[in-house]
Amino acid sequence: MLRSLAMAIIESVRWSPDGDAVRIIDQTQLPARLVELDLRSIDDVCDAIERLAVRGAPAIGIAGAMGLVASLRAFAREPRERFDTRLRAHADRIRATRPTAVNLPRALDRMLARASDVPGTASDVLEALHGDAGALLEEDRAMCRRIGEHAMPLIADGTSILTHCNAGALATGGIGTALAPIYLAHEAGRRVHVFVDETRPLLQGSRLTAWELTRAGIPVTVIADGAAASLMRAGEIAMCIVGADRIAANGDVANKIGTYAAALAAQHHGLPFYVAAPTSTLDPSLPNGDAIPIERRSPEELSRLRQERLTPDGAGIDNPAFDVTPAEMVTAIVTDQGVYRRPFDFGGARGARAPVVVASSTSST
């Protein structure tokens, strides 16, 4: 039985109806409330990214590009030279919110390159950037669909899948990366059951992925991060699919903290471990995962639950947002351009260009 995804998939980032703001779903409010925010100022945009109101590497790239345009609307009448200076300053502020995910700096570099090619007034530049940011969103939607189509043959009818964090519609402009083949398999009538790691400490799995999939009518079981290995041993999980925030030239994968542990367990139990990510996530400028900058987030994410103290005073806290899974543990990497298998060679991948990276931030997916 074929099912339609049209009513089930949400839009995490898009233009507001008047086109003057970026409209996002405030993911800090999920799953209790579905709240949308319109981002207009540079402070709005940076705050939304830093506090994870918008998250997920592709979605942050789109929100960053669209937010750059929205943040400059109030300065459309400035002299061109002053406007160009402000444009670069706003781009630098947005860029500095995220060091690990490669999509954000790429999107901003694209906006800056487009601006440099546009003659005329500040208003002319804004019009061009608005069109290019909108194109970025449409490209991401198409990209997600292609990832799903390339990965869908990996999912047989009746498959049980483990995923970690959220790499679905909430993390992209379309139907997701790791969740894209799951959505398409469900749409085609295949029976799929998804086990979702809760994803400590911010619970992107239990709060976001489970909410997305439940809304789409896909069977979901939320598990503690540490339970995945036992379920694999019991034969309840057949395969793993996760997303990625950056992939080094050798195929090492940076993703939400806990991904490496899931990969270790999958390798031990002989299960395939797939990574689904856009070509824009490939970073050939980095030889391996050791060169990927890893964000450290606030200790309070681990030491407190709302107002309750969870750790004693004086205890040290380390809160990395990501870890790196070595390429030898990855069965295949599925991109919008196809399926790559070991030994990974992304030399022919279009769009895999080295970004400009600012490695000073405390943000995360």
Q: Please identify, by name, the CATH architecture of the largest domain.
A: 3-Layer(aba) Sandwich
Name the average pLDDT: 91
CATH homologous superfamily caption of the largest domain: Translation initiation factor eif-2b, domain 2
Fraction in helix: 25-40%
What does this structure look like?
The protein is of the alpha/beta class and 365 residues long. It folds into two domains: 13-145, Four Helix Bundle (Hemerythrin (Met), subunit A), CATH 1.20.120.420; 147-341, Translation initiation factor eif-2b, domain 2 (Rossmann fold, 3-Layer(aba) Sandwich), CATH 3.40.50. The strands form four sheets. Strands 6-5-4-7-10-15-16 form a seven-stranded mixed sheet, with helices on both faces. It has a four-stranded mixed sheet with strand order 11-8-9-14, with helices on one face. It has a three-stranded antiparallel sheet with strand order 1-2-3, with helices on one face. It has ten helices and 16 strands. Residues 353-365 have low confidence and may be disordered. Helix 2 packs antiparallel against helix 5, helix 3 (80-95) packs antiparallel against helix 4 and helix 5 (122-151) crosses helix 6 (180-187).
Could you give the topology of this structure?
Elements: E1 13-15, E2 22-25, E3 36-39, H1 42-50, H2 57-72, H3 80-95, H4 103-116, H5 122-151, E4 159-163, H6 180-187, E5 192-197, H7 204-215, E6 220-223, H8 228-233, E7 239-242, E8 246-248, E9 253-256, H9 259-268, E10 273-276, E11 282-283, H10 300-303, E12 304-305, E13 308-309, E14 322-325, E15 332-335, E16 338-341
Parallel strand pairs: 4-5, 4-7, 5-6, 7-10, 8-11, 10-15
Antiparallel strand pairs: 1-2, 2-3, 8-9, 9-14, 12-13, 15-16
Helix pairs in contact: 1-2, 2-3, 2-4, 2-5, 3-4, 4-5, 5-6
